[in-house]
């Protein structure tokens, strides 16, 4: 049975954590890899380089939206394809464990599942705009 007194705060904690992770990854692509470097990496994978810019934007805007609680259910679902793409194009061939050379798909898979959990739980406490 779900504890309706604490579930909104659990959803809030998950929402803040997921949003923070997306902002951190957007920051990594902006300030460490650089937008041009990110686009070049996407191109090296056989994807359109412009996808790199789109992923940076989606991670930044999506992360901020999750933290603020702006339509968190929909934002969480919209971000799942980024992680599936990371698994399919980069991490899947490296095996399961994140410690494998090149990083396995363990963390990206877990992150995608947590986004689905967020979508199922809803916005949680202190959301600015509920879906």
Kindly list the characteristics that best describe this protein:
mainly alpha; single chain; 131 residues; DoxX
Describe the overall structure.
- The chain crosses the membrane at residues 50-71, 78-97, 109-128.
- Belongs to the DoxX family.
- Its main location: membrane.
- This is DoxX family protein.
- The chain is mainly alpha-helical and 131 residues long.
- The chain has one domain (4-119).
- 69% of the residues lie in helices and 0% in strands.
- It has helices at 7-32, 35-44, 50-68, 72-91, 106-121.
- Helix 1 (7-32) packs antiparallel against helix 3.
- It is globular.
- The two termini are 23 Å apart.
- The mean pLDDT is 96.
TL;DR of this structure?
The protein has 131 residues and is mainly α.
Report the sheet with the most strands, covering strand number, pairing sense and barrel closure: none
CA radius of gyration is 15 Å
Question: What series of H and E elements makes up the topology?
Answer: HHHHH
Q: How many DSSP E strands?
A: 0
Residue ranges: pLDDT <50 for 5 or more in a row?
Answer: none
Number of helices: 5
Task: Give the SSE layout.
Blueprint: H1 7-32, H2 35-44, H3 50-68, H4 72-91, H5 106-121
Helix pairs in contact: 1-3, 1-5, 2-3, 3-4, 4-5
